Amino acid sequence: MGEEKSVNNYDTNYICDSSNSNDDHSNSDPTNYFRNISLSYFAAEPFEMLTKHNKFKELCLENDNPAAHYIEGILQYFVYKEKRKGLFHLRQSSIGEYTNGTYLYGLLMLTLEHYPKGKKYLDKLQWKENLSTSDHCWKRVKKTLSTIPAIIETRY
């Protein structure tokens, strides 16, 4: 029941006013909904979004949901091997203040030898003041990446 990946364990942001309980959805704004909906389940299981919920992901991307950009960045970079597109989406997730996106984008910038840019993004996490931030990010990113099936190429 307390499973972290449970579909019922969303941190959904409710957009409507709770005092208006007459189910009148005439004022609902889909832009706000898709921008602010929590995608924590899919951030932990990005391949699920690729295979089963692609249209939902596209709607969230159209409305600049930072978690959707994080997921798309991972899929583009690690699944499709489209590094530029992946980095673009990871940067967008960081701009949207998605911590895991900032962490992964910073790490990738460092590995691609863009040290000043990588350091700049990692410094946004204030890891020098709070070392546990980078530890938590690393655990979440590692867990996310472990769910992606890898194709191992033999090069002899």
TrEMBL record:
Pfam families this protein is in? Answer: TPR_27 (PF23310)
User: Boundaries of each At2g35280-like TPR domain copy?
Assistant: 48-145
Q: Which InterPro entries does the UniProt record give?
A: At1g67623-like, At2g35280_TPR_dom
Q: What is this protein called?
A: At2g35280-like TPR domain-containing protein
Q: What is the lineage of its organism?
A: Eukaryota, Viridiplantae, Streptophyta, Embryophyta, Tracheophyta
